[in-house]
Amino acid sequence: MTRVTVTDHFVQPVEQVWPIIADFGGIADLLPGIGGCRVEGTGIGQDRIMDLGGAVPVVERLTWFDEDDHAFSYTILSGDMPFERYVATVRLRADGAGTGVVWEGNFTPTIAEEKTVRLATNLYQGLIDAVKAKLAG
Q1: Which one, 42, 88, 93, 132, has the greatest CB density within 10 A?
Q2: Number of domains comprising the chain
């Protein structure tokens, strides 16, 4: 099992960051590489189906959600991704006037580990940077 962890900091308080990070279906608004995203269901167990330009969409399921602790987990159910047994967890915490974020993924690579580590690291940092850009206006 491979673990990738990205930590960062937002200057905004957790109350401003959480609604953007916690919007499970809002990922298409954050990353330009996503052709579209639709959500089926609500709450824990909901699926987001993303068009990443491949023949098969990527389907992820929300598996844990803690509003009070500003954290959630999701898993990849299907799609053309270089991971098996993929689970990611996102946690926010108040950090002074700002917000700390930890985005962690655990998975078994199906291609070279260094490539999947780089892909996951770039994906998590890209999402964090996109949230920062959205917050900046």
Answers
A1: 88
A2: 1
